[in-house]
Amino acid sequence: MRPKRRLTIADVMLFVPAAAVGTLILRSYMPGFGQQLAYIPTIAADPYGFWRAYLWLHGPGSCVIIPWMAAMIAIRLRRPRPRLIRFQPGFVACVAVMVSLLPGIAWFLTIRHRPGFQRAGAFEQTWAIATNWTETAVLGAWLALLISRKWRSEPSWVDRMGRVLGLYWIVSLCISLALNWMQALQTFLSRWMS
Amino acid sequence: MSSRVLNVLILLATITLGVIAVRWADREFQRVEPPSENFRPVARPWWMWTIHRPYRRLQHAWTWVCAAVTLGAGAVALDPKTWKRPVDPGTVIVVVALLVSGVTIANYLLASPAIFRRNGDCYGLINALEYRVPGAILGTWAVTFGRKAGWRGRLVGWMWMAGVGMLIAYGILFG
Lengths: 194, 175
What we know:
The complex is a heterodimer.
Chain A: H1 9-38, H2 40-43, H3 50-77, H4 89-111, H5 123-130, H6 137-147, H7 157-193
Helix pairs in contact in A: 1-3, 1-5, 3-4, 3-7, 4-6, 4-7
Chain B: H1 3-32, H2 46-77, H3 89-111, H4 121-144, H5 151-174
Helix pairs in contact in B: 1-2, 2-3, 2-5, 3-4, 3-5, 4-5
């Protein structure tokens, strides 16, 4: 039987710089995010603050989550590691998110000279472009594992943490869909009642 | 009905659907983005601006070609006669692309806020599809990487990724 993977000082040492990077990204992201919150009334009436809560989860949340997912890949690759880590949902979610950042970063590099990216608080827009393809990456990866019956979750903190971080993207996507539906229902009911 | 006849029918339906969708998308493109001689936001050689509009038209229609091919490949992949275990990585890619496209289109048509539909459904659907489906395919590739996928899966996967490539190339050419 393989030795159980415990949380070690080396793991914590990988989380600390990831948290630092996350905080740095968050610091650059927040000034532009304030402007984004001001746009909510143009998207939808938000009497209960659901859209605001979603934007907080999706925007600043992703700034913190993504560096942690990068750290989780390094942690998972440390020894002792199981043979088939490519079928572990936690590891797969982290890899999928990292891979899905590549087109966004490439696209941003080609348009970074545009005036919109030169103004103060433009990092929020940069981050939105970089994470454009990330929203459904975990969903795609986990669906692929389920359809091909290769879901090999491991009862260890490493895989569980990866799954929790992956779940963040699924929950975020579900909330965005649910908010759309809630608003559509609200509009339909208000038209029907009047 | 034999599976070969069924596949030919699916192929014909896919081509018909693709042609109808592309023609509609092109009409919408001409309506929303009429030709403009003055559109030259960056300094590029004159001959590059001659390819700008055809490139934009192709880029705009490409999502609909991908959607039609995904639907056709999905119809073949979901046929119980061709469905076999273990599921081929190509079939996984097709099924994931089909699911994500289906949910995205349904969500857009039934529940999307009005602000996202300002330019018409064609533009709104492209904006919804061009990130979500390639994102899901990238996620699927993280799982199927290194395993040989069937040609339908490779076709669907690379077609959607070609759309992403076109977007990046547009940034390089006309950024």
